[in-house]
Amino acid sequence: MSALHVVVMGVSGCGKSAVGERLAAALGLPLIEGDSFHPPGNIAKMQQGVALTDEDRTGWLAVLGRELSHHPRGAVLTCSALKRSYRDSLRAAVPRLRFVHLALSQQDALRRVAGRPGHFYPPSLVASQFEALQDPAGEPGVIAIDALLPLATVVDRALEALRE
Ligand SMILES: Nc1ncnc2c1ncn2[C@@H]1O[C@H](COP(=O)(O)OP(=O)(O)OP(=O)(O)O)[C@@H](O)[C@H]1O
Ligand SMILES: O=C(O)[C@H](O)[C@@H](O)[C@H](O)[C@H](O)CO
After folding, report:
1. Which CATH class is domain 4-163?
2. pTM value?
3. 31-33 and 4-9 as β-strands: parallel, antiparallel, unpaired?
4. Distance (Å) from CA 1 to ligand 1 centroid
5. What keywords tag this UniProt record (predicted)?
């Protein structure tokens, strides 16, 4: 079987961690949690309610690209991948990279993030995620799924689309 590398992407609260975990299990592939690779300075910044800049994300994306390439048989990566340039940086790391974009409105993202106590990411930053987001529709290898569907349905749709 050929390799399958998938990025579960989208704004904070869209369900990257929840979907990524289930998708990786269903595919029998390792999960790379993108948030675990942010340098401590990035986490501190977000905790303080300051949005990350392109500069803050550059090194992080390079590390994530290397992580993907360390799994030649495939992996599932959770990563916001909000801008085209970020996605292209990941695409440069492995051939035929697929993206599952979990799409939802700002209002729904805010509701999810606000209802998740104990997580480092503050609801005050959700608006900045939508300012940064460049819709990946039309780019190669992109699947968009309604993030408000039940988790099992989201995962089933992703599996179905990835088979094509
Ligand atoms: N399809 C879904 N239906 C209902 N609840 C969901 C769904 N997907 C995720 N959730 C819930 O929404 C919240 C946000 O999900 P999750 O933490 O996976 O998002 P995320 O994109 O990883 O966010 P972040 O990047 O900020 O960590 C969690 O409480 C999660 O359980
Ligand atoms: O690019 C970014 O701004 C970050 O990756 C954020 O998306 C957060 O890390 C994540 O959403 C919180 O869990």
Report:
1. alpha beta
2. 0.97
3. unpaired
4. 31
5. ATP-binding, Kinase, Nucleotide-binding, Transferase
Amino acid (one-letter) located at 68:
L
Tokens of residue 61, six digits: 């994306």
Phi, psi of 31 (to 5 degrees): -100, 130
Q: Whose CA is nearest to atom 3 of ligand 2?
A: 52
131 CA distance to ligand 1 centroid (A)?
20
Distance 11 CA to ligand 2 centre (A): 7
| pLDDT tens series, the chain, 164 aa | 589 999 999 999 999 999 999 999 999 999 999 999 999 999 999 999 999 999 999 999 999 999 999 999 999 999 999 999 999 999 999 999 999 999 999 999 999 999 988 888 999 999 999 999 999 999 999 999 999 999 999 999 999 999 98
In sequence order, what are the residues at sequence separation of 6 or more whose Cβ sits closer than 8 angstroms to the Cβ of residue 101? 9, 10, 135, 136, 137, 142, 143, 144, 145
Measured CA to CA, the distance from residue 67 to residue 71 in angstroms comes to 7
